[in-house]
Amino acid sequence: MAAAPRPRRSVLYMPGSNARALEKGRTLPADGLILDLEDAVAPDAKDTARDQIVAALAEGGYGKREIQIRTNGLNTPWGYADIVAAAKTSADAILLPKVESADTVRQVANIMEAEGAHAGMTIWCMMETPLAMLNAKEIAGAHPRLGGFVMGTSDLAKDLNCAHTPDRLPMVTSLGLCLLAARAYGLVILDGVHLDLSDDAGFEASCKQGRAFGFDGKTLIHPKTIAAANEAFAPAEAEIDWARKIIAAHEEASAEGKGVVVVDGKLIENLHVVSAKKLVAMADLIAEMDGA
What we know:
It is a single chain. Helix 3 packs across helix 4 (102-114), helix 9 packs parallel to helix 10 and helix 11 crosses helix 12. This protein starts with 9 loop residues before the first strand and ends with a helix. The protein is globular, with a radius of gyration of 20 Å. The strands form two sheets. Strands 1-2-3-4-5-6-7-8 form an eight-stranded parallel barrel, surrounded by five helices. A two-stranded antiparallel ribbon has the order 9-10. The model has no long low-confidence stretch (mean pLDDT 95). It contains twelve helices and ten strands. With 292 residues, the chain is an alpha/beta fold. The chain has helices at residues 19-24, 46-59, 79-87, 102-114, 130-134, 136-140, 153-160, 172-184, 200-213, 226-233, 237-255, 270-291; strands spanning 10-15, 32-36, 66-70, 93-96, 122-127, 146-151, 188-191, 217-220, 261-263, 266-268.
């Protein structure tokens, strides 16, 4: 069950222990929110954070934003209760931290089924350890509920003992392995966070690089970065115009019984038409999201 097509240009982490942040999330122009029970929440606030997230989702008001709940791991004192509580909410997905095996995904899926998780609720995996990189293919094919990967580049860099360079060259292999696995299994994949909030130019460069690599969007740690991520991961007007031109030419050729479509001297194959239709559909969804 791959995650439904929708804009995921900007996906913002929000600590579940911060009631004010949960309220503010209803008004932010992010495509998605990760309501966090893990890294952003102190141990003595875990139970309160869980209750606040459940209450906030019951109240609603998040509009078209995709809502994920990042739980604590099953190997922690809070993980099982987190998954049980999340499974009973209206959230779009449960995001699991530090996934390293397909078995973890299947265990969580079994808990979700037992607790009556709604049919559209997916499982997403934080990919943030060397073992996760090596097992990306198995994790990607672990269960029909799997919807996507989120790169945890901060923890990954620590485990790799590598530097955070502007070109992210030390992590290219890891990013590539996860991108390959996600695309092979039809999953969404989001790029990791940019930690330096004072480095606007670096953040924009990171977004452009992530888009070039093939990521669907960027995970964020501050609302001030939403606009730049939305701009970087949205299709350009020229791309949309070209896609519409391909679609129109294909429709015209089909109506005339022609098997060959040529646009501006370029032969257009069926794969190009399919990609063009997907791009235009995503552009329409983005326009709807931004207008909401």
